[in-house]
Amino acid sequence: MKTRISILVILTALAIPVAVSVQSRPQAVSGLAADRVAVIDRGLQRFIDDNRVAGIVALVIQDGKPVYEKAFGWADKEAGRRMTTDTIFRIASQTKALTSVAIMQLIEEGKLSLNRRAGDFIPTFAATTVATARKDDGLVTAPARRPITIRDLLTHTAGISYGTGSVVGDTYAAKGLGPAAGMGWYTADKDEPVCTTMERLGTLPFVAQPGDQFVYGYNTDILGCIVEKVSGLSLDQYLRMRIIAPLGMKDTMFFLPPAERARLAAVYGSQDGKYVRSPDDARGQGHYIDGPRKNFAGGAGLLSTARDYARFLEAMRLGGTVDGVRLLSPRSVQLMTTNQVGTLHSATGLGFGLGFQTTDHYGANGMSGEGSFGWGGAYGSNYRVDPEARLVLVLMTQLMPNATDIQQVFPNLVYQALQ
Q1: What is the pTM of this model?
Q2: Cβ–Cβ contacts within 10 Å for residue 330, how many?
Q3: pLDDT by residue (tens digit) across 256-285?
Q4: Topology of 100-235 in CATH?
Q5: Superfamily of domain 34-90+251-416
């Protein structure tokens, strides 16, 4: 009996520190640490106080729920309008993600394939050329070694730029593209359908052979035209019917109704370390309300809010389906968010999938986890999806050109606050 009691006492004594040890382990908690949220606030407010950025909307979603959503500064300082979380922004190249999803939907339905030729849908792309040099009497060109494919366009390896470079700039400008289109990508002022613009683009020389280089340019605008050709709908109609309306993205559109004018943030630009208001032209405020409203640019045309765009990204984070709304299969999303270009985009661990920049190892993109994906827009908006941390990050500003580092600072502020 004494022996049994002694054993029980010893076991009980041994159990005490074990129990304490288990209880003291850090528990996995969702959301942001309350005492660290103030660091995010101060970090973003500093850009406002230093007059480097006029206004900001920052949104962080974890596990589908907002854990940080705040507005800072001005939507339109001259008009006295403060920034609000439902302010509408020009998202420029963030449009590319939606157009790329549209292409993948058509691929899933068997109406397209990655190796289909762009020339099958836009005749001027059947036989393209590449500029090799500029001489006094014009461009020196060579035939493309092979046709441009859907895969080339999704990965920006078709050799197609925005036509603003010194070799091709004058040639593009003469056709209303490149330097004649704002900073190259802008088509909101064109009184013609996007396919008319893209058909004209196909007659111009490109800057690299298909498959040779990562060249950022009109690739996704071409894809937008292909969506129209294949679906029989305008890109505006297709995106509304297949992506925007099903997800309940009520503030995402190509052109804003005049009645909503007061919700659109003004565009500013960096000058001498401060922000200044941009002019009322293609390089500034743009024609998103009073323009012709005909050219639906799949590469850079949409307007949206932080909440709307985060809703779309949450569907992508979850493998293509959110709240019963299916955009794509998990396999398609995995294909889009996996590096498809090797080191053509970057030799430092950033890749490019089918419409998204990818993070191939931890440290390649700040604190973002391996497998993260994202991109941004010319007006200063930026986003990141981190499946490992179950996060969606959206930063909205309207600053073009942007001489600040806010797009790098914001994710770091968020990651330092994770519990």
Answers
A1: 0.92
A2: 11
A3: 999 999 999 999 999 999 999 999 999 999
A4: Beta-lactamase (3.40.710)
A5: DD-peptidase/beta-lactamase superfamily (3.40.710.10)
